[in-house]
Amino acid sequence: MDARLLEILVCPICKGPLSYDRAAQELICSADKLAYPIRDGIPVMLVDEARQTVEGTPVDPNGPSGPSGSSGPSSPSGSSGA
Question: Which of 22, 33, 36, 58 could make a disulfide contact with 27, Cβ separation 3.0–4.6 Å?
């Protein structure tokens, strides 16, 4: 991996820096816990092609924080029926 290329590439989700894993041939975003593959010397910077580096961590292509204030469907709290 060319060091100059690594300096200009960023995570397509959070725009954060990437680190190079030479053994796995991947670019790692530690913020989003994603690993982007390098195939034939070419980084594949597609979210759909990335793998999660931590099992069970959901990937939100809109960013790590998502929409603010959304907590799912509304339901009345404290009511137990009749």
Answer: 36
Residue ranges of the chain with per-residue pLDDT less than 50:
64-76
For residues 25 and 33, give the distance between their C-alpha atoms in angstroms, rounded to a whole number: 16
Which position has the token pair 């597609």? 46
CATH 3.20.20.330 fits 3-52, yes or no: no
Model pTM score? 0.65
Domain ranges of the chain: 3-52
Measured CA to CA, the distance from residue 40 to residue 34 in angstroms comes to 20
Can you give the pLDDT at residue 59? 53
Determine the Cα–Cα distance for residues 18 and 3; give it in Å rounded to an integer. Answer: 11
The three-class DSSP label of residue 42 is strand
